[in-house]
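Exercise 3.2. Students should predict the tertiary structure of the chain below and write it as structure tokens, then compare their answer with the key that follows.

Predict this chain's 3D structure.
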Amino acid sequence: MIRVAVIGAGHWGPNLIRNFHNRDRSEVAWVVDPDARRIAEVRARFAEIATAPEAGPALGDPRVDAVVIATPASTHYRLAQAALERGKHVLVEKPIATEARQGEELCTLAARAGRVLMVGHVFLYNPGILRVKQYLDQGHLGRVYYVSMVRTNLGPIRMDVNAAWDLASHDVAIVNYWLGAEPLTVSAIGGSWINEGIEDAVFATFRYRENVFVNLHVSWLNPRKSRDITVVGEKRMLVFDDMNLAEPLRLYDKRVTDDRTALAYVDSFASFRASVREGDITIPRVALGEPLKVECDQFLDCVSTGAAPLSGGREGLAVVRALEALQRSARSRGREEPV
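Answer key:
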């Protein structure tokens, strides 16, 4: 039985408590939150779980094997550092830290202590995202030309990080996983309307190796909730819509062919059509599941076996490096920055 302390019982914390307090492989021994109302809700539902307003008692409990951190991003580094220094395994929500040097330090601490350090990039455990990875690895789309990603909603509005750190962290983690690479450069712009100095919407373009471009639009100031990804390849194209639970994936057998018009310019609609292949649209069956449960189960597996997680500390650090470069670019009015 793996005993877990969950730090943070706010928006995401209750879901983590539910998954880890299964009494099969793990149980939640502590819940930590400074908000007395949240603690009261935990006590009302789980009388057997110890609670505290601050992390000290939970981190000092020798019965606790692992610490799960679901607090504001600005606190992730300090709490993860304290847990690793006390010999605990750590699952920390994204981002791993708000500075690359902090993420690097956490990775070093985890390696030195022989403990699992995992980052909650939950979309990497989404069945649709995993299916796309299979298609890309099998060359189903051919060479990837570009990826377009839109992640918008009305709220929640953060006070400690901007929309890129809150939302684009998901998309950078996904593309890094799909391409098996980190971006080389980024150019970005952002706008602050609600809180000065905290961007509510960000538009960014990352450049990866082999001239793959990834365009991101993230916003918490948008009337429509969107989680759309389009992947354009030389053989096929793909759309992932996470809001469509029944049919999240569509494969388009569409591409520009080598059988193009010999004219110096396309002078008719028919000639233009001759250069484009229009094929079938395939809707693969993607099994429904709870990505968070898969993520939590993998964390427990890694704690038990010592295996490396899919979203480990190094993968989380790569996301932070990309976001730091994005922020530098946005603050310099879109100048292309190396990652």
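Discussion points: Residues 2-122 form a domain with the Rossmann fold fold (CATH 3.40.50.720). The radius of gyration is 22 Å.
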